[in-house]
Design a protein that fits this description.
mainly beta, 5 helices, about 5% helix
């Protein structure tokens, strides 16, 4: 019998222990450093010289959101709706960015493309990830197929894992205990547990990172029903990174990961085939190894990112299936800079994707690409490039990107205007072509054309404001009716995004964003037309931080599979609180959070359970 802990009382005790005592902070003015972005050009460029819309989630922001998941953190950013992140822990996630879906989003981890050739959208499953292993995240919104290839039509999410400590050996341990309850059952029992441990260090020219993590959540049913049956979720993560600096010019990095999770799910049992609370299960695991040698020379470098991934998935239900997949990825590229003004990257990306259905299926892609960035002395910046997709099933397809921007210096800050026109190519995946349900080997690839324009004003003294409009046209969109097929008409999605960040007073920061998304013709399920996020963060002192976060999600359309009719889901608002306190020279950190403070009752996905008010209490030790 599992023992449960009343964590609400623990939370109150924990907060009273740390208190709100303040320490004197050095009043010396600290100059704000220029923010550097990488993903939009693959060079370290100042934000003011970037013509793309890039969201950067820093190490500090991640540390101020401990206890959350990667999908929950990403879901607070403009232009993004991660559907399922507010539901039971094992819920499928829909990455709806700028009106797109999972197959139009590309994910990289430490520069290596990650996906699953056996799954319907050929995407990466964020349920595998532990936020405690992440150093930073960059999100490029808009088409980026020139640099990153197939599927990078609405966004590229570039995740960097934690770096090695500069000490010989350093350790970190984190544990979080929390509730996992619905709006109707506020029992405040401990039912959500996360633990992670890592060691890292540097010895002369060698550095290493090794980590282990696990997560377990119980107490919620995936299906919302009168007599809910608990659907547990458990996850395990193991990772290892090794690097050796042979000389000033040559470095070799290697990595290995093994991640797996298991979740109980609900489905559509026979004979009625209507959504119900069932005893179904879903198991998924992946193993990935890779190597990344880098040779540097005057004004340039040559690098290879290569990885092998093995994936096994099993669904246990009336519609059960077993999937095996593997992929080989090699991205070799040369970067060269002329006079700190002209940045070039020339590369070749190769992918070999295999999946077992009734028989083994595979395809390959071999893509040469070239991208150039020009940064002038008079404010004009230009990012331009092209890529030739060579697909084993669909032949050659050329995609390109033209991205000018102009920066006008204003006092110590800048005002920047930007524009972009880019094309993308999305090949049908193996599951859509040869899978168990609705496969269609005659599918045509989807093509996207995206145009966007906007501005950014940044004082570099605590105020940033930006706005962007985009319009994306989809041709041969792959849809599901009685099976997978190409839509007979083109689809156009447009919208705009507004963001601001303000240092209101010393140590008090306000950030907010608003997103408008609209499909000009037709319907997109579960994508809100209006969405807004706002956050206040306050540092009481150097070691004490608190934040209040607000999220509004407007009306959405969903499908009622009992009637096969579309229905509108009501808008909802959520408020979360977070508090952290560092002790013993920052070696110990206590943190607590309350999510859905006012216990809002709503549907994120029609028929599925959402989380009510929940409380988390965490402890981190750094040695």
């Amino acid at each position: 019998m599992n023992k449960r802990t009343n964590v609400f009382g623990m939370l109150c005790i924990g907060i009273s222990m740390v208190g709100f005592s303040q320490q004197e902070i050095d009043s010396t003015k600290v100059e704000q450093l220029d923010e550097v972005v990488v993903s939009d050009s693959r060079f370290n460029l100042k934000r003011e010289n970037s013509g793309k819309t890039v969201i950067k989630i820093s190490k500090k922001e991640i540390e101020n959101n401990q206890g959350r998941t990667v999908s929950e953190l990403i879901n607070s950013k403009s232009g993004i709706e991660v559907n399922g992140s507010r539901s039971a822990a094992g819920q499928n996630l829909g990455n709806f960015i700028r009106g797109g879906n999972n197959r139009q989003v590309l994910v990289l981890i430490d520069g290596v493309q990650v996906n699953d050739p056996s799954i319907v959208a050929n995407d990466f499953d964020f349920r595998f990830l532990d936020l405690n292993t992440v150093e930073s995240i960059e999100i490029i919104k808009g088409a980026a197929s020139t640099l990153y290839g197939n599927a990078a039509a609405t966004a590229v999410i570039n995740i960097t894992t934690k770096k090695a400590s500069k000490e010989t050996i350093s350790g970190s341990f984190l544990t979080v205990v929390g509730t996992n309850q619905t709006q109707d059952d506020l029992n405040y029992n401990g039912a959500n547990f996360t633990n992670s441990a890592s060691i890292s260090g540097s010895i002369n020219k060698f550095n290493y990172v090794a980590g282990f993590g696990n997560s377990f959540a119980d107490g919620l049913s995936a299906a919302k029903s009168d007599n809910p049956e608990k659907d547990a979720f458990s996850r395990y993560n193991m990772n290892l990174k090794l690097a050796y600096q042979f000389s000033d010019n040559f470095e070799l990095k290697t990595f290995a990961n093994h991640d797996k999770f298991k979740t109980d799910i609900d489905g559509f049992p026979a004979p009625n085939y209507t959504f119900a609370d069932t005893n179904d299960e879903y198991h998924s695991k992946q193993s990935r190894v890779g190597v990344s040698p880098k040779l540097s020379y005057n004004n340039g470098s040559f690098q290879i990112n290569a990885a092998y991934t093995k994936i096994d998935r099993e669904t246990i239900s009336d519609f059960g299936s077993t999937n095996e997949a593997e992929s080989y990825i090699v991205d070799a590229f040369n970067k060269y800079t002329f006079n700190n003004k002209f940045y070039t990257i020339l590369g070749l990306n190769y992918g070999d994707y295999n999946s077992l259905f009734t028989e083994e299926q595979n395809y390959t892609s071999t893509d040469p690409y070239l991208n150039m960035v020009y940064v002038s002395d008079y404010g004009l910046n230009l990012n331009i490039g092209g890529r030739l997709n060579n697909h084993s099933e669909y032949g050659s397809q050329f995609v390109y990107n033209l991205n000018p921007s102009y920066t006008l210096l204003v006092n110590d800050g800048y005002f920047k205007i930007l524009g972009s026109y880019a094309t993308s190519f999305i090949a049908p995946n193996l599951s859509q072509l040869f899978g168990y349900y609705g496969a269609n080997p005659d599918l045509e690839p989807e093509e996207n054309k995206t145009i966007e324009g906007g501005f950014e004003f940044n004082t570099k003294k605590g105020f940033r404001f930006s706005g962007i409009y985009y319009n994306r046209k989809e041709e041969n969109t792959i849809v599901y009716t009685t099976g997978y097929e190409n839509a007979t008409t083109d689809a156009t999605v447009h919208g705009f995004e507004v963001e601001t960040q303000i240092d209101l007073v010393k140590d008090l920061t306000f950030s907010a964003n608003y997103t408008f998304t609209e499909l000009k013709d037709g319907v997109r399920l579960r994508i809100p037309k209006h969405k807004a996020n706002a956050s206040f963060g306050y540092s009481f002192c150097e070691s004490t931080f608190a934040s209040l976060n607000y999220q509004f999600v407007g009306k959405r359309t969903d499908r009622d599979f009992s009637t096969f009719q579309n229905v509108d889901l009501d808008a909802f608002s959520l408020i979360d609180l977070y508090f952290s306190r560092k002790l013993l020279k920052n070696k110990v950190k206590l943190f607590a959070s309350i999510t859905n403070l006012f216990n809002e009752d709503y549907f994120e996905i029609l028929g599925y359970t959402t989380k009510g008010r929940n409380v988390n209490l965490g402890l981190q030790l750094t040695l």
